[in-house]
Structure formats: C-alpha cells, structure tokens
Amino acid sequence: MRHGEPITAGYAMIVREDIPTGLRYEALVAAFERQMGRWAPETARQLAEQQATWEQVQAAVKQAEGPHGLMILSEVNQGELLSLHNGMKQSRLYLVGNPLIAEPIIAIDLRASLYVPFRVTLYDNGSPHGAIISFDRPSSFLGALHQPALAPYGQLLDAKIYSVVRSIMM
Q1: Mean pLDDT rounded to a whole number for the chain
Q2: More confident residue, 8 or 147
Q3: Strands across the sheet containing 118-124
Q4: DSSP label at 168?
Q5: Residues 147-153, mean pLDDT to the nearest whole number
Q6: Which candidate, 6, 100, 105, 91, places its Cα nearest to that of 58?
Q7: Residues 139, 46: Cα–Cα separation, whole Å
C-alpha cells in the first residue's frame, strides 16, 4: 500500500451454484475434464519469450480451449493431501477460463484479474445425489467491480460454464 493512497472496497452479492450431478466423484472429474481444454503454462512462457503477435496468441489459445471455449489453467487436488487427516476427502479445485475472454475484461478493469480465471470445484460430500460441481457465478463476482461494461462478459462466462454443466449431466 502506498502512503496516502486510499483503500477501496467493493460489494456485490456472490451467487454460488452447487449442482449435484448424479455421478460418482471419479466419473464427474473425468466428465468435467473431457469438456475442458487445458492450457500448458510453458505455452505462455514460450509465446512471451518469442514476443509473439496477438494473432499467434489467439491461435495458441484456440488450440487449447475445449468445446465450450473454456480451459483448465490450473488444478489443485485438495483431497489428496487433506485425506491424510480425518478420512477420505474427494475435492478438486480448478482455475477455469480463457485468456481471449480475460483480456477485454482486464482491459476494462485490472482489478478483474482477481476474478478471471474463475474457480470451479468438484467434490463428493456423500450425498445420495452424487458428486457436486460448484462455482461462483462469474456475472456475480464481476459485479463487485461495479463496471457496467463487464456485464456482457460475466453473462458470457455464465453461459459457458452452464454449457459445460449441461454436457456433463446429459
């Protein structure tokens, strides 16, 4: 924090979706990952080192994105380590997004880099309705920035993650 710079805060109602899928945890993980592309971190480094054109970046992203225009940018198998205490926990956290969608969002407001990529978690809490896919609705957390120009991007990301969910549950 710089001396004399004001501290700001934004408020919004965050809408979380917890969607029982009827699938076993392992089946949900496999189905989710089939619907997503995967971004390799070394690709970004290579593009930056090459000082790639934006067209080259776009081509690399298009090649990595999944059928719904989203990709896994990072993954944390939370259950793997946490299961070592108090029994089995099945939970994975994913950072999901698309750099081509994130770029105009962050161009509107750099603070949006806190929200894109966004988080999706898959977990099994023992429910008879199967493992759960859970995420904060992108339109709701982008609303915390109070930038009307971000609304269409939030709605676009909502539509993309709901498309993933529908495909999994078919």
Answers
A1: 92
A2: 147
A3: 16-20, 132-136, 118-124, 90-97, 71-76, 37-38
A4: H
A5: 96
A6: 100
A7: 32
Whole-prediction pTM = 0.89
Among 11, 63, 16, residue whose Cα is nearest residue 40: 63
**Nearest by Cα to 106 from 170, 149, 48, 42:** 149
In the chain, % of residues over pLDDT 70: 94
Q: Are 47 and 60 in contact (CB under 8 A)?
A: yes
74: Cα separation from own chain's centroid: 9
Q: What are the pLDDT digits (tens) for 59-68?
A: 999 999 999 9
C-alpha distances out from residue 147 to 5, 16, 42, 53, 105, Å: 21, 20, 33, 29, 10
Q: Which amino acid is at 79?
A: G
Written as six digits, the tokens of 94 are 């994913």
Closest CA to 14 of 138, 147, 114: 138
